[in-house]
Each structure stands twice: as C-alpha cells, then as structure tokens.
Design brief:
Elements: H1 4-10, E1 19-20, E2 23-24, H2 43-55, E3 58-59, H3 60-71, H4 75-87, E4 91-96, E5 99-104, H5 108-124, H6 128-142, H7 144-160
Antiparallel strand pairs: 1-2, 3-5, 4-5
Helix pairs in contact: 2-4, 3-4, 6-7
Length: 161
C-alpha cells in the first residue's frame, strides 16, 4: 500500500508544481507529511537518504553495508529507518523477490530547497527585507564567487521570468 502522498501522485492528484494559496505545496511530493513543511530528518535518516540519493536506489542490505555497519547499527534498525522515510514520503519502494528496493521521490536539491524555504518562512515571518539581506550576507561570507553566483541567479530569473 502506498502512503497517501504517493497514492495521490500515482492517481495524478499531485503535480510537482501544484499551487495552493499562491504557495507551492510540492515538498518532494510529501503532502502526506504536511502541506506547510517538508519532513525533518534525524542523523540516521539523513545518512540513509544521502546514500539512496547517491545510488539512485538501494535495499536494506546495501544501506546496512554503507551506512549501518560503520555506525554499529543492525539491519532491522536500517529497515525501520527506510520504512519511516517511505512513510514520510521521501522514498518509494517496490518489492523485488522477498525484499523492498527503495528509491527517492525527489532529488536532494528539491528537498534542500523545500526545507530551506520552510525555515526561511518560519524564521523570517514575512520579513522579506531581512530575508534578502541575510541571503546576501551569507553569500558574501561564503566568498566573492558566491556573491557573483547570486547576482547571476537573480539576472537569470529576471530574464527568464
């Protein structure tokens, strides 16, 4: 059985750019978690997602080998983590023989964008000027290349509409 967000996606009820009240509710197809925020990840969940994003798909044994072993975590803990990520809507799964193979439902960049967007909205509470100044400050602190990149991104967005 698919989690609600995956089922809605399969039935065509969700699209990656669906809008509600002028705000994107995409969040990596994770509407089942919340239309207001993407799922938050613990350290182990983040490590598992990093592995699945890097590989494209993985089963419990592959994740155990690359993530669990170095942490001293047993396969059943890895399996529980994969299941949680599936229920959060970040992974989809298909049965192959007697095991599930998991694949991400969104890219790392999509998840990062949605998570950052939520944090900015929550922290800045609509203070657009403060948010923009914070991004410019962060880009400047990261180095002149980042400030130049920010300027190019703004120019591209204005040009492309």
């Amino acid at each position: 059985m698919l989690p609600p967000a995956q089922d809605a996606l399969k039935q065509g009820c969700l699209s990656p750019h669906e809008k509600t009240d002028g705000r994107s509710v995409f969040f990596c197809y994770c509407a089942a978690v919340s239309a207001d925020r993407p799922p938050l990840l613990g350290d182990l969940e983040q490590a598992v997602m990093d592995h699945v994003w890097a590989c494209g798909c993985a089963d419990v044994h592959a994740v155990q080998e690359h993530v669990g072993r170095s942490r001293g975590i047993r396969a059943n803990t890895v399996q529980s983590t994969l299941k949680r990520l599936y229920h959060k809507g970040l992974l989809q799964r298909r049965k192959v023989s007697h095991a599930f193979v998991y694949e991400p439902t969104c890219s790392r960049a999509e998840w990062q964008r949605d998570t950052l967007g939520h944090v900015v909205r929550a922290v800045m509470e609509g203070e657009t000027d403060a948010m923009l100044a914070a991004f410019v400050d962060l880009a400047e602190r990261a180095g002149p290349d980042h400030l130049d990149r920010l300027q190019r991104l703004v120019a591209e967005r204005r040009r492309d509409g």
